[in-house]
């Protein structure tokens, strides 16, 4: 495409698209990669932190070396572009408290100066990013800040442009006769901008846009639209759809829309109407989103990082089409290994999208979309490009979302696809919070981090940290950060399972009936407050009763009260069975049933039902419920607090023997119905495989079903049992919305050791189940998990990793023979006799 003859024959213009530099002048070689690669300014002695390399890091914004190599490469590749578009975001992603207006303006000045230094003769067309504002994201019409920015960019802009920029951060320029650029300020419409919420037309931009497009139409000009935040999920719904509607009717004028912001490589098509058959109808326009120079990623979201990117476009001015682009990338992983930054071609758009010399038009990019929808290998490649070749965990559902996002550009269509389409149902599993209202910063770590009897905190810093301690239950700060993280990650899950253990592990004398009920009330309402639109399915834990672990069949005072607390969450029918035995069953949606069991009856520390055969008639009710689910062809999720089998964490059985084996036998005929069991209680991360019979030939028999044990939020370690502590955990599951197969889960953790040092609570992804268990696009069913079990038998490294995750990445030694036996036998030896035979 950049063939010299061709360029002359076709009147080809070339231009660089520079976006999201996010140059961080405080990036320091040897800085802390968990703190934006900065050297700690407070000079607090943080030991053992991972040091930032010279070439950049995926946790951090661009060091100068990366910026410099980017521009060196651009100048070497094409020193004389016809123009440059620069779509914003100069400020680094540092804490907002570290920024002020001057720092933000300085950042914009710096990146503008670098571009000018390297391309002194080029015309430059900038747009305003959501980070090019102070306070960050907050930009509004007529504000002084816009005038300040217009000063920085004044040599690129005409008088008229300067005026519109001061008014609303937008402008238009004639690149050359017949070719116009419109720089849109979508930072006004950005979802996190709270300054312009109630304005119909912030800065009169819509009105202006319509006028400019009409002029372009009359004059028969071709138009490039540029901006920072692209249309789609990043803009407020009403503004987003209105912006797209503004372009309808100008398909002849608009060549393409070019954006940044997402730090992702993707494109969108928009249609005349939100409700369209995306396959058979022609789109009105095409939007290209270029990835960033910065490799920084938001580790609070599930998004993977990206490698640094540069993009050069070519356009045929006479034909009024984008001809092509070259996508360049720098392999940061390799740069870190080699200690220097190199750039190379990632792909050529006309080849990858098979557009040939027809150009990158709405029509050719629609053809590419149809191909992506029909060819899964092709879609895989597209998804790899999204993160600029950074390895992603994108499973089939994720790929389907990426495909949908190409066409679901209107808010209306996004909702249709992402919320009601055939995508995954997601649910949080919240368990073992054990919130301790008496936890105090400075409290005694040998006494649950409570204040001493005299009410004093420990002097000299030997007391508990404000963020938690491995010897204590959850302080309020931990509970609050966990919910904040969940809401940020997915505020609208399809439902939530909540498997109990709210009160702290304090002596019986420090609790009573009222305190236990109050604790359940508080935690329940905290969940419903954070997830006001989400259905919650609770289960009773052994700590949700008083005295601890002692629960007798109902009706009784305690079950009546718990039923009262949960009466808003459940149906009247559920409340009836809850009163009798603490169990219930509901349809999550037609075809998917949840059964919440009360396994506290069977727990080895509950001595209220030892002599009964079926306390609360739960097992006979369970049989009937499963039988009717089978005849109605429903899929079933089993939830409960204490799991059956052996507790590998504490090295003790969980249920009395007679209950354990009877309980397991109930499930034997329903392997087709039950997608999985979900438990808590052990405060560890594990899974279980169960068999119809008490078989012991595990080497060749595929199990009937699988149970997942989710670790606790509390890091508390039982000093009386041979366990390791665990880090705080959160987990979100995904099930297929049609087959209800369990697809995946994401396991999040918070590194309490680090939190205590930094004084703040950080959450991060620990692992993705489909990847760790190597499900290869199969569901997380008995078969997949059985293969993971077999891998552990033969592969010590894999077993060690399982053992590490078992304590939520609390550091452990390699899993020796004793550890291996207990871990593996507790996975397959659920029946009591099975377990003891497995040990020998
Ligand atoms: Zn941005
Ligand atoms: Zn617990
Ligand atoms: Zn428990």
List keywords for this structure.
2 domains, single chain, metal-binding, elongated, 6-stranded mixed beta sheet, binds zinc ion, alpha/beta
Short synopsis of the structure:
The protein is α/β, with parallel strands linked by helices. Helix 12 (396-407) runs antiparallel to helix 13. One zinc ion (ZN) binds next to loops.
Question: Can you walk me through this structure?
Answer:
With 840 residues, the chain is α/β, with parallel strands linked by helices. The chain has two domains: 4-22 and 61-326 and 345-420, 4-Layer Sandwich (Purple Acid Phosphatase, chain A, domain 2), CATH 3.60.21; 429-725, GpdQ, beta-strand dimerisation domain (Transcription Regulator spoIIAA, 2-Layer Sandwich). It is 32% helix and 17% strand. The protein contains 25 helices and 26 strands. The longest helix has 18 residues, at 101-118. The chain is elongated, with a radius of gyration of 30 Å. The mean pLDDT is 92. The site of one zinc ion has 6 residues, from loops. One zinc ion is lined by residues 432, 434, 501, 543, 681, 683, 712.
The computed structural class is alpha/beta
Give me the side-by-side strand order of the main sheet.
Answer: 3-2-1-10-11-12
Categorize the overall geometry. elongated
Sheet having the most strands:
6 strands, mixed
DSSP summary, beta strand count: 26
Say what the CATH topology of the largest domain is: Purple Acid Phosphatase, chain A, domain 2
What share of residues are in beta strands?
15-25%
- Quickly name the level 1 CATH class of the largest domain: Alpha Beta
N- to C-terminal distance: 70 Å
């Amino acid at each position: 495409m950049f063939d010299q003859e061709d360029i002359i024959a076709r009147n080809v213009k070339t231009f660089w698209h520079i976006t999201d530099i996010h140059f961080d002048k405080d990036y320091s070689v040897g800085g802390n990669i968990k703190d934006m690669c900065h050297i700690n300014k407070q000079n607090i002695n943080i030991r053992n932190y991972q040091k930032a390399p010279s070439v950049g890091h995926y946790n951090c914004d661009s060091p100068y070396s990366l910026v410099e190599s980017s521009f060196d490469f651009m100048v070497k590749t094409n020193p004389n572009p016809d123009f440059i578009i620069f779509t914003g975001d100069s400020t680094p992603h540092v804490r907002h408290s570290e920024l002020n207006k001057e720092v933000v303006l300085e950042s914009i000045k710096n990146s503008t100066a670098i571009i000018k230094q390297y391309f002194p003769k080029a015309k430059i067309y900038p747009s305003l990013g959501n980070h090019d504002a102070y306070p960050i994201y907050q930009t509004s019409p007529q504000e002084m800040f816009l005038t300040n920015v217009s000063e920085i960019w004044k040599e690129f802009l005409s008088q008229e442009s300067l005026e519109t920029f001061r008014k609303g951060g937008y402008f238009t320029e004639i690149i050359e006769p017949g070719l116009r650029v419109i720089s849109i300020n979508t930072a006004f419409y950005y979802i996190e901008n709270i300054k312009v919420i109630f304005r119909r037309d912030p800065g009169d931009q819509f009105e202006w846009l319509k006028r400019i497009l009409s002029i372009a139409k009359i004059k028969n000009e071709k138009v490039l639209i540029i901006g920072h935040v692209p249309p789609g999920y990043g803009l407020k719904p009403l503004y987003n759809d209105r912006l797209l509607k503004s372009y309808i009717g100008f398909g002849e004028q608009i060549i393409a829309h070019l954006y940044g912001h997402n730090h992702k490589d993707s494109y969108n098509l928009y249609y005349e109407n939100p409700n369209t058959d995306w396959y058979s109808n022609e789109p009105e326009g095409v939007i290209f989103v270029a990835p960033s120079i910065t490799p920084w990623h938001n580790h609070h979201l599930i998004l993977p990082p990206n490698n640094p990117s540069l993009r050069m476009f070519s356009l045929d001015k006479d034909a009024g089409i984008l001809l092509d682009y070259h996508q360049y990338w720098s392999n940061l992983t390799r740069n870190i290994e080699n200690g220097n930054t190199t750039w190379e071609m990632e792909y050529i758009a006309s080849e990858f999208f098979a557009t040939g010399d027809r150009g990158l038009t709405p029509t050719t990019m629609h053809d590419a979309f149809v191909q992506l929808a029909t060819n899964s290998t092709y879609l895989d490649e597209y998804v790899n490009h999204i993160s600029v070749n950074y390895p992603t965990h994108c499973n089939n559902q994720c790929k389907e979302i990426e495909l949908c996002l190409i066409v679901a550009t209107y808010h209306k269509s996004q909702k249709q696809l992402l919320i009601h389409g055939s995508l995954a149902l997601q649910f949080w599993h919240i368990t073992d919070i054990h919130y301790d209202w008496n936890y105090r910063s400075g409290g005694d770590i040998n006494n649950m981090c409570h204040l001493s009897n005299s009410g004093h905190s420990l002097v000299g810093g030997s007391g508990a940290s404000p963020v938690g301690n491995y010897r204590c239950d959850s302080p309020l700060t931990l509970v609050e950060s966990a919910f904040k993280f969940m809401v940020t990650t997915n505020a609208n899950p399809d439902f939530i399972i909540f498997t109990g253990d709210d009160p702290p592990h304090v002596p019986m004398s420090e609790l009573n009936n009222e305190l236990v009920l109050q604790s359940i009330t508080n935690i329940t309402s905290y969940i419903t407050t954070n997830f006001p639109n989400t259905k919650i399915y609770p289960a009773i834990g052994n700590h949700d009763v008083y005295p601890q672990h002692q629960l007798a069949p109902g009706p009784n005072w305690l079950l009546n009260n718990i039923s009262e607390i949960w009466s808003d969450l459940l149906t009247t029918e559920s409340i009836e069975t809850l009163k009798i035995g603490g169990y219930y069953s509901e349809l999550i949606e037609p075809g998917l049933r949840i059964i919440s069991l009360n396994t506290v009856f069977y727990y080895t520390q509950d001595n209220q039902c030892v002599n009964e055969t079926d306390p609360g008639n739960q097992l006979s009710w369970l049989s009937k419920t499963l039988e009717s689910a089978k005849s109605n062809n429903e899929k079933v999720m089993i939830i409960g607090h204490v799991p059956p089998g052996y507790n590998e964490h504490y090295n003790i059985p969980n249920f009395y023997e007679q209950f354990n084996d009877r309980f397991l036998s109930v499930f034997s005929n329903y392997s087709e119905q039950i997608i999985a069991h979900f438990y808590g209680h052990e405060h560890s991360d594990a899974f279980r495989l169960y068999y119809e019979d008490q078989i012991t030939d595990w080497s060749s028999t595929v199990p009937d079903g699988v149970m997942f044990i989710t670790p606790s939020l509390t890091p508390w370690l039982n000093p009386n049992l041979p366990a390791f502590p665990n880090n705080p955990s959160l987990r979100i599951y995904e099930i297929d919305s049609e087959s209800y197969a369990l697809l995946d889960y994401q396991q999040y953790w918070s590194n309490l050791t680090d939190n205590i040092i930094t004084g703040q609570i950080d959450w991060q992804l620990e692992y993705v189940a489909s990847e760790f268990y190597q499900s290869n696009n199969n569901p997380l069913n008995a078969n997949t998990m059985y293969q993971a079990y077999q891998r552990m038998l033969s592969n010590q490294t894999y077993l060690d990793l399982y053992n590490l995750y078992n304590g939520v990445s609390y550091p452990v030694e390699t899993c020796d023979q004793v550890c291996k036996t207990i871990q593996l036998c507790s996975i397959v030896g659920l029946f009591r006799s099975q377990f003891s035979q497995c040990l020998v």
